[in-house]
Write a structure and sequence with these properties.
This protein is an alpha+beta fold and about 325 residues long. The protein contains 7 helices and 15 strands. The relative contact order is 0.11.
Length: about 325
C-alpha cells in the first residue's frame, strides 16, 4: 500500500487521472475495479472515479508495487547521432562546429538526426537536461546556418540565455565571420557590397536588385581577400545584414560565385574539379557586446574559432 498527499500541482485532478499518473502500468479496467472495491480510497473513504482532488487529500492505494513502476520515457532526440564537435561550453551556452550536410532543425525530409537533436541528446546524457523537469523550455539554437554551410552555431542551455542571445544577435552585438572560396580574383581587395534581396519561397532562392522595392530587403556584405591561387580566392566575409543565402547570392552577383555552390554558382564545372559542396564556413564568432548582457557579461570580448576549415587548408594551406 502507498499513500499520496495531494499538492497544488495535482489539485483539481480527477481521481482516475491521478491514479493513471502515479500507476502508469495499471490497466484502466483494473483501476476502475480497485476504485469500486475500495482498494483505492480518498481520505480513508470510498470515492468515485470522477472525484476531484484537493490540496491535502490523502489517496491510499492498495495496489501491487509492480504497477507503480514508471514507464521509461521515449525521447525523439535519443535517436540522433551522439557526434558533436564542441568549440566551447559553459553553464549557459554551447558553441558547436556544425559540419556541412547536417540540418540544424528538422524539415519535411529529415526529422531525427539534426543538430538540435544531437545537442539535446548530449545535454540529456550529461544530466543537464531532463524534459520531465521542464514545463516548456528545451535547449535551443540562437542562430542557424544552411544545411550545406558549416561552422559555429550557438545553443542556449536555459531560457534567460536564449533571450539574451536573440537580443544580441538582433542588435548586431555578436560578430560572425565566414571563410569562403570564390571563382576569380576580385579587383578590389576589400569592399562592402550593397544591394537589395528578394526571396522566392517556392524556389528557395533569392534574387538581387540594385533598386529598392516594397518586396525586397537591403543587404550589406563586406569581403576581404586573404589569398589567391589558380584563379580562386579565399575571402573572409562579414555580414552587415543577415539574409537568406546573402553571401552566396551577393558574391555571385559581382561575378565571383562560390566554389561548389549548386544554386548560384557553377556546380557542374566544380564537380569536375572534385568539389561537390559549397566552400562556405562560419569559422569565427566574437561576443561584441555594446550593452549589458546580464548573466552572459563574462563573454564580452571573447572570440571563438573552429580548429580548421577544410577548403582553406586544402586549397590555400591557410591555418585558422
Amino acid at each position: 500500500m502507498k499513500e499520496f498527499t495531494i499538492t497544488k500541482n495535482d489539485a483539481t485532478l480527477r481521481l482516475d487521472k491521478f491514479i493513471t499518473k502515479v500507476c502508469p502500468t495499471l490497466p484502466t479496467s483494473l483501476m476502475f475495479k480497485y476504485i469500486r472495491t475500495k482498494r483505492i480510497k480518498v481520505n480513508g473513504k470510498r470515492a468515485e472515479i470522477n472525484t476531484r482532488l484537493n490540496i491535502g487529500d490523502v489517496v491510499s492505494a492498495y495496489i501491487n508495487d509492480e504497477f507503480f513502476t514508471p514507464i521509461a520515457p521515449k525521447y525523439d532526440f535519443l535517436s540522433a547521432s551522439n557526434k558533436l564537435d564542441i568549440v566551447y561550453e559553459d553553464q549557459n551556452i554551447l558553441l558547436v562546429d556544425k559540419k556541412q550536410g547536417l540540418l540544424v532543425h528538422p524539415d519535411k525530409n529529415e526529422y531525427g538526426d539534426t543538430l538540435i537533436a544531437r545537442i539535446q541528446r548530449y545535454l540529456y546524457e550529461k544530466g543537464e537536461y531532463n524534459p520531465q523537469d521542464e514545463n516548456s523550455f528545451r535547449p535551443a539554437l540562437a542562430n542557424r546556418i544552411d544545411r550545406n554551410t558549416g561552422g559555429i552555431v550557438i545553443s542556449a542551455k536555459n531560457a534567460e540565455t536564449l533571450r539574451i542571445l536573440c537580443d544580441k544577435i538582433k542588435y548586431r552585438e555578436i560578430d560572425k565571420r565566414y571563410l569562403t572560396v570564390v571563382h576569380g580574383v576580385p579587383k578590389v581587395k576589400s569592399a562592402t557590397l550593397e544591394g537589395f534581396l528578394e526571396k522566392n519561397e517556392d524556389k528557395n532562392k533569392v534574387y538581387l536588385s540594385s533598386k529598392k522595392t516594397e518586396n525586397n530587403k537591403t543587404i550589406k556584405t563586406k569581403y576581404t581577400l586573404l589569398k589567391a591561387k589558380n584563379n580562386l580566392s579565399l575571402l573572409e566575409i562579414e555580414l552587415l545584414t543577415g539574409r537568406t543565402h546573402q553571401i552566396r547570392a551577393h558574391m555571385a552577383s559581382i561575378g565571383h560565385a562560390l566554389l561548389g555552390d549548386g544554386k548560384y554558382g557553377r556546380l557542374r564545372d566544380d564537380k569536375k574539379m572534385g568539389f561537390n559542396k559549397q566552400a562556405l564556413y562560419s569559422y569565427k564568432l566574437t561576443f561584441d557586446f555594446k550593452t549589458d548582457a546580464g548573466i552572459l557579461n563574462y563573454l564580452k570580448g571573447k572570440t571563438f574559432t573552429v580548429d580548421e576549415v577544410w577548403f582553406a587548408k586544402e586549397l590555400f594551406d591557410y591555418n585558422i
